[in-house]
Amino acid sequence: xxxxxxxxxxxxxxxxxxxxxxxxxxxxxxxxxxxxxxxxxxxxxxxxxxxxxxxxxxxxxxxxxxxxxxxxxxxxxxxxxxxxxxxxxxxxxxxxxxxxxxxxxxxxxxxxxxxxxxxxxxxxxxxxxxxxxxxxxxxxxxxxxxxxxxxxxxxxxxxxxxxxxxxxxxxxxxxxxxxxxxxxxxxxxxxxxxxxxxxxxxxxx
Length: 205
Prior knowledge:
Blueprint lengths: L1 H7 L6 H13 L5 E5 H6 L5 H9 L3 E3 L7 E6 L11 H15 L1 H4 L5 H12 L7 E5 H8 L6 H10 L3 E7 L4 E6 L25
Antiparallel strand pairs: 1-3, 2-3, 4-6, 5-6
């Protein structure tokens, strides 16, 4: 679903709007309508009208005038959404999983939307048995609504927050390798260097 949103949303869509769009995409019904409780939006720090307007401006959804006091309703406008994985019966479970992974309590009390989305992306693309992952740097940047040059600082912050053990960028190929916390000694992939100073990528692979 993150790959779908990377293609469906404009490149300049903010990380916060992408987190909101993810919850909408995973919770939409077969009539292309979604209802999100305002309490859930507050827990994700996404209870900002500007984010809904950003997605409306992108012509990805339209807010329903029938929104209730305790929820926001919207009509999603991209019919291709219904053909995306996970399949409809599994999407609510995936939405709850994304809520746990991307929530401020998991990403850190002071984590902003970019850190929340980056944490979600890395977790979703890691091997569940080893915590190791690999992706294209450009691909992750596009999915997170940022620039490749800004990702090293984001990754450093995730290490400081205790969400990553280490990460490495292979400059020759533009690939990013990482290991999630909690998998020490279990990762069976190429050696990954520990990050250097904030804002500076570690040694090449």
